[in-house]
Amino acid sequence: VLLKLLARRGAELPHLARAAVISGPAARVCLRMPRWQLWAGRLCAQVMPTLRFAGSVRPDLLTSDPLVAAAYEPDPLVHRWTSARLGMEILDNGPQVLSSVSRISLPCLLIHGAEDAITDPAGSQEVAARLAGPHALRIYASMRHEPHNERQRELVFRDVEQWAEQYVLSNNPQPAAASEPLRLKAQP
Fold it and tell me: Distance between CA 91 and CA 31 in Å, rounded?
């Protein structure tokens, strides 16, 4: 969603944000559906867009941390329904994002778990390769869809903090080369 917004309206956002941290973007969704289900989903999205389907993401797909996964199920803020339109928007979002991210000039840090079974880490690699502005990509081994909710979350937080210090919090409005990825400094 954020990548789509930045691609469409990024030029209007510099006064609101200096950079973006994007976790597990849905540039490539791992879900594979038979053609008939896609056809039925598209029909429902047009004819009955608010038709809802039960189902939420399995907690073990989000994180390997059993404590975080256990807290997910009873959380009243977890949305347990998907409308036909939202489902199709999620599936259709990837190609739209990939075709438009070259318009994003805002600095971006992309983070993704290498074991993500919801969105494909290769999608983040494609996004990074197409971004026009300064960016960094960090794919974390042994992490799933929400790296910030994994047992090794401190590594993720340290990388985000380091990136923010290196670019966002510095007085340097433009990193060295806008077309090259930012390199995260090694921690001592």
Answer: 9
Rg of the chain over CA atoms, in angstroms?
A: 18
Can you name the CATH fold of 2-168? Rossmann fold (3.40.50)
Closest CA to 95 of 28, 40, 181: 28
Judged on CB neighbours under 10 Å (0-12, 13-18, 19+), 4 is middle
Q: Residues 102-159: pLDDT tens digits?
A: 999 888 999 999 999 999 999 999 999 999 888 999 999 999 999 999 999 999 999 9
Please state whether the predicted TM-score (pTM) of the whole model is above 0.90: no
d(CA 109, CA 29): 20
DSSP 181: B
Residue 24, pLDDT score: 96
Report residue 66 as tokens. Answer: 């059993």
Calculate the average pLDDT of the chain.
Answer: 86
Secondary structure percentages of the chain, helix, strand, coil, to 5: 45, 15, 40
Q: With the CA atoms of 138, 144, 145 and 148 taken in that order, what torsion angle do they form, in degrees rounded to the nearest 10?
A: -70
